[in-house]
Amino acid sequence: MPVVRALYIFAMSKGKILVTGGCGYIGSHTIVDLIESGYDVVSVDNLSNGDEAVLEGVAKITGVAVENHIIDLADRVSTLRLFHEGQFDGVIHFAALKLVGESVHQPIQYFHNNLNSLLHVVEGMEATNCRNLIFSSSCSVYGNSDELPVTEQTPRQQAESPYARTKQMGEDILMDYCRVHPEFKTALLRYFNPAGAHSSAIIGESSSNPPSNLVPVITETAIGKRQEMTVFGDDYNTRDGSCVRDYIYIMDLARAHTLALDYLIQDQQTSNCEIFNLGTGNGVSVLEAIHAFEMVSSQKLNYRIGARRMGDVVSIYANYDKAAEALGWHPEHDIKDIMRTAWEWEQVRG
Question: Full-prediction pTM beyond 0.90?
Answer without folding.
Answer: yes
